[in-house]
Amino acid sequence: MSKGKVLITGGTGQLGSDIGELLLKQRYQVYSLSKKELDVSNYEQVEKTINEIKPDVVIHSAAYTKVDLAEDNQDTAYLVNAIGTRNIAIACEVIQAKLVYISTDYVFDGNKQGRYNEFDIPTPINVYGSSKLAGENMVKDFHSQYFIVRTSWLYGQNGNNFVKTMLNLAENGRQINVVNDQSGSPTWTVDVAIKVSELIKTKLYGVYHVTNSGECTWFEFASKIFELAQKRVDLVPIGSEEFVQKANRPKNSVLDHMGLRLNNFSEMRHWGDALEDYFLKTSQKTTDEDIRCEL
Ligand SMILES: NC(=O)c1ccc[n+]([C@@H]2O[C@H](COP(=O)([O-])OP(=O)(O)OC[C@H]3O[C@@H](n4cnc5c(N)ncnc54)[C@H](OP(=O)(O)O)[C@@H]3O)[C@@H](O)[C@H]2O)c1
């Protein structure tokens, strides 16, 4: 028997696809919609789709995620991340569906000494972070049963991410320079999916930081990736000023899991353990696919 209907926006994205896969296994009826099937910036489409499906839960994972391009495409970033989220929130409130809004560590400026908890005041320093924070405010303004889930430094099987970029760079044998003065918590999409599946079973609404625990710099993250991939590369630590990007990045975006603690959810595992598991699972998947091809 189905546990209920879940609609996922951005269902073909890196995180949305892993949430969909897990909830299907947990016997939810999953409507995992691509941008083509549901453009969140189109209010009529959002209203019609949500009214027709009548989901019990909506997981809003769709976003304009191009952090540097957002600096020049401010209107598009706000249209998708703020207005799109308003559309979802209004339609969900009408049918009383629980809403999970996926947000980001980039709502913080990175100047705090120590980890950011859910009660720290966000002050974003780039357009992407500002538009995602505007999305959080839309959820709070227009919906009553919500989980705002802030995550960070995501990697997963389906999508472009830092792990894949590093492994691709290793192929050409050149020196790889990686920033060593920005700290955060790398997070496997599968672990976020598990925690989201725990949250939606409850009515413990509010803001949650959902990242793998522990912290590192991008350079330390890269070192661990190459260690696990057993690749020898010429990896060089550099400062942010040597790697100029269009959008500002927070120096510290490590998130404390106070929300999980205070509501008696289990702690997230360490990012190093999650990354190890990711490598194990992806190599296992590749082997299985090779065997199927040979058969
Ligand atoms: N990646 C990270 O490190 C990270 C960190 C913190 C938070 N987050 C948040 O986590 C969520 C998932 O991110 P992700 O890494 O899975 O990103 P992703 O792979 O880029 O997925 C985002 C999805 O949203 C879709 N989308 C874009 N505009 C849309 C629209 N107008 N209507 C409907 N769908 C639209 C994209 O479709 P197209 O590809 O067809 O455009 C894509 O499938 C996002 O909310 C993001 O802000 C990500």
Automatic annotation (TrEMBL):
Documented EC number(s): 1.1.1.133
Gene Ontology CC: cytosol
Cross-referenced Pfam families: RmlD_sub_bind (PF04321)
Enzyme class: oxidoreductase
Keywords: NADP, Oxidoreductase
Chain ranges of the RmlD-like substrate binding domain: 5-279
Pathway connected to this protein: Carbohydrate biosynthesis; dTDP-L-rhamnose biosynthesis
GO biological process: dTDP-rhamnose biosynthetic process
Keyword check for NADP: yes
Recorded GO MF terms: dTDP-4-dehydrorhamnose reductase activity
Function: Catalyzes the reduction of dTDP-6-deoxy-L-lyxo-4-hexulose to yield dTDP-L-rhamnose.
Family the entry assigns: Belongs to the dTDP-4-dehydrorhamnose reductase family.
Protein's name according to its UniProt entry: dTDP-4-dehydrorhamnose reductase
Organism: Cytobacillus solani
